């Protein structure tokens, strides 16, 4: 666990280094940011290095939650010191939206923002993506959070309280995939016509399923070939990175062995087939443009990236609702995407189907299998409970936002996109809007929902239960 | 099972007798209705009396589904033959809305409808309420549907394939409660100033949690004392009838022993306390009126009755959303109310809470208890799956309705209120609207959702699975 915190601290540094290198007149705030990042890293390392092996599970929840909180506090310094953001709630919102890879923004004119700050903004998403890989592979299995760690291939599950050597191995591989693909997509963007600055920024926010752009028009600003590239890499960033590693090393059978990957691919194809016709009809565009827009928005929303190339709320109320539903999907466990994720949906669908078998044959033992392995009742219960708590937080959150005076669709949209770490939504927070108009309380509340969603709900919620605080 | 079908057939007859007695110029269509009802009863009795003990579980799903389908088909004859409704989709909608105790209507001027037909309309709800008691007590436990039968007090659960004598005893008691309370509330309504016709109609639709009224203004037409009476009897009609029987026989300890009853009462009180202030503020009415309206609408929506005395969508978007959320509650198992019901919510909430204990103490055995009894993992899974399927049908149903060209809130409202058998909703199907404007497909689709919700989803859904059709 101490090792993880060292890593967390260290990976703040390259981010700051990059930011420092790219500064364009706003150097001082970024230097402060670098100092702050180093400070938090050193503090964490110093605090915990002397009790490395003795940190208990319950302290883990607190450390993970506090790590993200600290990162958010120090991460917002560049915005505040530079004056790009002039109040605390906005700074909290923008930073948390970055670190959680949500990508919702309070900036009304992105292109007018200093390039150094804007780079830091993209970098927060990349750091967030890296952080979520660590959590998924190394921390959540130990903490028993979310119930999906068993489906991240090669993860040995919660068998030991110490960092398993194989986990460290897996984590290294995934970082290799993450960093490698970031470089690859950045080079492609550059070759395909983006300038160097835009290419780097979009590479960072593509692989993090972040969705921050340097352009007010998001990806709609760029050429079709760049949009297709973005689609492909958004798809990859929503794929379990272990499977990408298998793919890169030629083990394609193991890739297709994953039920979640199959469901993810099949769902994308089915949604594309179903929606391309209606979008073509209602958008009154050429077929290629309608096809590209449909595929782009489906991929962007399902992977929770949140780039946009067209206003999907402008076609038809039924299509708006379908695109809104995508906010609840999420892509794969073991990727950087947020939201519920396919393996949970798959568990729910498979179990629903088997429930019918169970009521018809009440005495039969009807096991549920994923990737060929039997899933225990405990994990099925945990996952279905996760789904219900997720939906309940969505409902309660929407009530809170609507009580602040916003219409129901805007409230649904803002809460769903925050909780799912997506970015755009429906209502007044549609794909062409921003979150600047919300009051300070709502901004902080939505930031909290982003953190809640990003840390798989339980990590934070457990801190509010007596089980966590009760001695031993 | 044969006994049940005889009962089902027989209880069509008093309904028809009433209708015949009350006819006010529209006698012939009601005579046909009487004949039809008798015909279906006789047919069912004749078909199954010779194989009484041999009906298998799987045939049960089909029989229950078909019984409601047949009742709907014959129940709509009075509307069609009288000409009150001039097309099939509208007749289907109105009849299914009656028999499922939903209470949504396509009639635009209720007071202009002939009194005999209007009485038949109220009677369909009362028959539906009676039917649902039979299903809950005698049929669902045998079929293993819904997972809540174990919480209906004194129900012995799915231990035998034959109609247990104690079940017959329980069913008799519940009918006694149902019929007794119907008479009681009818007498009270009459004494408090309703005319005889209105008192009888409203007595039938109050105890069925039906919500059909003989007035265009629903219960807003009547005096405050009648509204308070309605509140009290709506509350009772949403209570487990076994508990009312205990209450009537003085066993109050057993009433309060029910966790579901406690949750139901506490929720009503909490919602009242939370909402009375805001409603008072936004309605600009006197406090007593605001208090009465708040309590009335909360009780009406949660018990899925659907009477209205004020437009709860006119206050504030946040309050509208809260009232909309009530459509997903439902009252108690073993009552005539529809929807999800408190015992399922209770199971979900308790299990969510325990999930945190389980992740903090992964090796501990953490059982879930309701009414002091341990609930098996199988039932927890079944109930949580029910909740998720319910919500999934809500989402898919809303997409279907919105694709027919209605706005998102109207689609959400129409689907939620149909599935939950409530009646009024939000959007264009608010408390002062009706369902006449929907296209024929949507009307039939919403009718299907009403049946789906009323038969606890699984009864109908199982017919669409191979497990049901595969030989043995
Ligand atoms: K995002
Ligand atoms: K109703």
Overall description:
The structure is a homodimer of 472-residue chains. With 472 residues, chain A is mainly alpha-helical. Chain A has a domain at 342-468. Chain A has 21 helices and two strands. Chain A has helices at 2-10, 12-22, 27-49, 57-75, 77-82, 88-99, 115-143, 165-191, 196-207, 224-237, 241-248, 252-256, 259-283, 287-302, 317-326, 342-360, 377-403, 408-419, 440-454, 458-461, 466-469, and strands at residues 368-370, 373-375. A two-stranded antiparallel sheet of chain A has the order 1-2. The two termini of chain A are 19 Å apart. Residues 1-6 and 154-163 of chain A have low confidence and may be disordered. The interface between A and B is large, with 57 and 57 residues. Bound molecules: potassium ion (2 copies). Residues 101-103, 209-211, 304-306, 421-423 of chain B line the site of one potassium ion. Chains A, B: It is a multi-pass membrane protein. Chains A, B: K(+) binds at residues 101-102, 210, 304-305, 421-422.
Please supply descriptive tags for the structure shown above.
homodimer; two-stranded antiparallel ribbon; 21 helices; 2 strands; globular; binds potassium ion
């Amino acid at each position: 666990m101490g090792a993880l915190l060292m890593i967390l601290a260290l990976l703040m540094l390259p981010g700051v280094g990059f930011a420092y290198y790219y500064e364009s007149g706003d150097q001082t705030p970024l230097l402060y940011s670098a100092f702050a990042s180093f400070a938090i890293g050193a503090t964490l390392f110093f605090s915990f290095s002397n009790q490395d092996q003795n940190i208990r599970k319950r302290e883990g929840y607190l450390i993970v939650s506090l790590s993200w909180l600290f990162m958010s506090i120090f991460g917002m310094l560049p915005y505040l010191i530079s004056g790009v953001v002039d109040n605390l709630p906005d700074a909290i919102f923008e930073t948390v939206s970055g670190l959680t890879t949500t990508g919702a923004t309070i900036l009304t004119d992105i292109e007018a923002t200093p390039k150094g700050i804007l780079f830091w903004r993209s970098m927060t998403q990349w750091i967030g993506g890296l952080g979520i890989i660590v959590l998924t592979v190394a921390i959540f299995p130990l903490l028993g959070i979310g119930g999906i760690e068993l489906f991240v291939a090669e993860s040995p599950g919660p068998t030991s309280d110490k960092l398993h050597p194989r986990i460290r191995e897996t984590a290294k591989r995934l970082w290799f995939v993450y960093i490698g693909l970031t470089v690859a997509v950045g080079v492609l963007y550059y070759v395909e016509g983006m300038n160097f600055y835009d290419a780097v920024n979009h590479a960072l926010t593509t692989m993090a399923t972040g969705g921050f752009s340097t352009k007010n028009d998001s990806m709609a600003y760029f050429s079709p070939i760049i949009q297709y590239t973005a689609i492909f890499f958004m798809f990859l960033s929503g794929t379990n990175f272990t499977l990408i590693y298998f793919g890169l090393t030629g083990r394609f059978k193991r890739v297709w062995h994953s039920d979640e990957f199959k469901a993810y691919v099949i769902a994308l194809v089915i949604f594309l087939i179903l929606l391309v016709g209606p979008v073509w009809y209602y958008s009154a565009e050429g077929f290629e443009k309608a096809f590209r827009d449909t595929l782009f928005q489906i991929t962007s929303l399902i992977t929770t990236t949140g780039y946009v190339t067209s206003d999907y709320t402008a076609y038809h109320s039924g299509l708006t609702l379908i695109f809104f539903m995508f906010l609840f999907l999420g892509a794969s466990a073991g990727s950087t995407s947020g939201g519920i994720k396919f393996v949970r949906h798959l568990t729910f669908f498979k179990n629903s189907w088997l429930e019918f078998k169970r009521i018809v044959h009440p005495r039969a033992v009807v096991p549920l299998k994923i990737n060929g392995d039997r899933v225990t009742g405990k994990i099925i219960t945990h996952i279905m409970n996760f789904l219900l708590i997720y939906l309940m937080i969505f409902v309660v959150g929407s009530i809170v936002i609507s009580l602040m005076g916003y219409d129901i669709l805007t409230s649904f949209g803002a809460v769903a996109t925050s909780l799912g770490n997506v970015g755009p939504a429906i209502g007044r927070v549609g794909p062409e809007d921003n979150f600047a108009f919300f009051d300070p309380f709502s901004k902080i509340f939505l930031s909290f929902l982003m953190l809640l969603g990003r840390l798989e709900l339980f990590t934070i919620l457990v801190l509010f239960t007596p089980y966590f605080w009760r001695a031993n």
